[in-house]
Write a structure and sequence with these properties.
By secondary structure, the chain is α/β, with parallel strands linked by helices. Helices cover 48% and strands 16% of the residues. It has 11 helices and 8 strands. It has a 4-stranded parallel β-sheet, with helices on both faces. It is globular. It starts with 5 loop residues before the first strand and ends with a helix.
C-alpha cells in the first residue's frame, strides 16, 4: 500500500492581475458570473452585467485598486503568497499552494501543482473564517471542477469554517489589544463583516449565524465591555436587502449617539484587500468623521503575521486529528 503524502491548498477569493480597467473588467466578469455570488437567472443577469455593470464599474474600481496597489502587486495576492511561503517554511515536508476562486493563480493551477508532487491526501482551507455559499462553497465548486477528467483523485479534507476556533479568536484578540494599547480604548469596537443578500440566509446560508458566533466569542474573550462591541455588514451591492446593520449607515449614525471614537476590525478577511484598505479604512472613516466623530482607527487583517501563520497551522492540524 502506497504511503500517504499530504498537501495543503489555501484558497481565497482572488484579485485583478493589474489595477487597470481591462484587468478589472476581466476579473469582475468572472466573479460576477458565478451563480454562487449572483443567483439571478442568467438570461436576466448577463445583459445587466455586460451591458451596464462592467462598462460603468470597471474603470471606477480600477481607480480604487490603484489607490491601494503595492509595489509587488495586489495586497490580497501579496499577503496570500506570504501566508503560503511562511506556512510552507513551517511544514517543509508538506507541499503548500495558494489558489483563487477567480483570477490567478487559479485553484485548478494550485491543485495541478500539488498533484504533480504526488499528493495523495489534500487538505483544503478556504481562508474565510465564516462559511458562506458565496465564498466557501465557491471554493468547493472550483476544487470539484479541478478534478474533472482525472483518472485518480486524492482524499480531500475540506475545512468548512473556523469561525470560533480558539487560535483564530486568540489571534484577533491579540490584534485588537495591540490596537487598544497603541490608540487607547475606543467608545466602540466595530466588527465589520462582508455582507450578503439577506435572502441567501433566509434560504439556508449559515453565514449570519457564523458571524454572530465569532462576534460572541470575541465579546467573551476581550477585556472590554461586551455592549460596546458592535457587529455590522459592509459592501452591499444592488437594491435588495442585505444583512444588517449596514456599516456605512452605522458610521453616519454613531456620532449622533455620543460615540466619538471607534476602532474597526474586519474578522471575516484573512488578508487586507480593496474592501478593507479602501472601503473600511478610508470611505467609512470619512463617513464617521464627517458625521461628527473624532477618532477612527482601522485594525489591519491578520495578513501574514506570526499569529496568522500559527493559527492556519493549528487549524490544519486539528482537521487532521
Amino acid at each position: 500500500m502506497s504511503e500517504k503524502k499530504y498537501g495543503i491548498l489555501l484558497a481565497n477569493l482572488g484579485t485583478p492581475d493589474a489595477p487597470t480597467t481591462s484587468a478589472v473588467r476581466r476579473y469582475l466578469a468572472e466573479f460576477l458570473s458565478d451563480t454562487r455570488v449572483i443567483d439571478v437567472p442568467r438570461l436576466i443577469w448577463k445583459p445587466i452585467l455586460y451591458g451596464a455593470i462592467l462598462p460603468i464599474r470597471s474603470s471606477k474600481v480600477a481607480k480604487l485598486y490603484q489607490s491601494i496597489w503595492l509595489e509587488d502587486g495586489s495586497p490580497l495576492l501579496v499577503y496570500s503568497l506570504r501566508q503560503k511561503q511562511k506556512l510552507a517554511a513551517l511544514l517543509p515536508n508538506i507541499p503548500v499552494d495558494i489558489g483563487m476562486s477567480y483570477g490567478s493563480p487559479s485553484i485548478k493551477t494550485a491543485i495541478d501543482n500539488l498533484m504533480e508532487q504526488g499528493v495523495t491526501d489534500l487538505v483544503v482551507l478556504p481562508l474565510y473564517p465564516q462559511y458562506s455559499c458565496t465564498t466557501t462553497a465557491a471554493v468547493y465548486d472550483a476544487v470539484t471542477r479541478a478534478f474533472q477528467g482525472r483518472r485518480t483523485i486524492p482524499s480531500v479534507q475540506f475545512i468548512r469554517s473556523y469561525a470560533t476556533h480558539p487560535a483564530y479568536i486568540k489571534a484577533l484578540v491579540t490584534s485588537i489589544e495591540a490596537s487598544f494599547a497603541k490608540h487607547g480604548e475606543p467608545d466602540r469596537l466595530v466588527l465589520s463583516f462582508h455582507g450578503i443578500p439577506k435572502r441567501y440566509c433566509d434560504t439556508g446560508d449559515i453565514y449570519q449565524q457564523e458571524c454572530e458566533k465569532t462576534a460572541q466569542a470575541l465579546r467573551e474573550a476581550l477585556n472590554y465591555p461586551s455592549d460596546n462591541v458592535l457587529l455590522t455588514y459592509q459592501s452591499r451591492f444592488g437594491r435588495e436587502p442585505w444583512l444588517m446593520p449596514y456599516m456605512d449607515k452605522t458610521m453616519h449614525e454613531l456620532p449622533s449617539q455620543g460615540v466619538k471614537s471607534v476602532q474597526v476590525i474586519c474578522p471575516g478577511f484573512s488578508v487586507d484587500c480593496l474592501e478593507t484598505l479602501e472601503e473600511i479604512s478610508e470611505q467609512n472613516k470619512e463617513f464617521f468623521i464627517s458625521s461628527g466623530g473624532h477618532k477612527y482607527n482601522y485594525i489591519s487583517a491578520l495578513n501574514d503575521n506570526q499569529d496568522s501563520i500559527s493559527m492556519i497551522n493549528l487549524i490544519i492540524e486539528d482537521a487532521l486529528k
